[in-house]
């Protein structure tokens, strides 16, 4: 098993006033030649957006975009829909940009900050018809067990959102002293594990809140929770760019 620990404090950071952005991979003005991508995972941004602020209309194409609100209210509008749509904590949003889409994202609150993860995954099909979906996932369904949020559109997995890539996004909330054994789909996949909150040990390495670890070249690995913890697993094929 090969692992690379990515400490939270070593992420790229940008303070735009209205936006506090942490970048796990090279993005916008942040560049690190050792953090371009992890297989098909291209972007993992950990953003905090001020009330009433957000991203004005902008284009995307040929990218699978997944947004996971952690606190506050996200509002989204795109060229496929005329109306603003709210996405709340507990919900997940996916957008296949395909042959091209325009969208806007704002903090839907006039008082509270919005915190979220935005994830970009390189698709395995180009120039598809753009598509959008969102779904609520119950927190109790990931207590000490894996909850699948996103999977391949070609995979027969009920209950998950779909993207054009052989990837899986999942979450688990582990109680203190609990362990979980994660099994990978194939030897050609790797897993980027983001410790959303808490303290866990993977391959003898300690992950504190917002630390991450890249796991490759293994069939499975064990997560040990040193305290109550919440984790996000992003499993992707280890493609080259």
Automatic annotation (TrEMBL):
Residue ranges annotated for the Pirin N-terminal domain, each copy included: 11-121
Pfam families: Pirin, Pirin_C_2
CDD domains, per the entry: cupin_Yhhw_N (cd02910)
InterPro entries xrefs: Pirin (IPR012093), Pirin_N_dom (IPR003829), Quercetinase_C (IPR041602), RmlC-like_jellyroll (IPR014710), RmlC_Cupin_sf (IPR011051)
First and last residue of the signal peptide: none
Quercetin 2,3-dioxygenase C-terminal cupin domain boundaries: 151-236
Family recorded in the similarity comment: Belongs to the pirin family.
Protein name as catalogued: Pirin family protein
Source organism (scientific name): Lacinutrix iliipiscaria
Taxonomic lineage from the root: Bacteria, Pseudomonadati, Bacteroidota, Flavobacteriia, Flavobacteriales
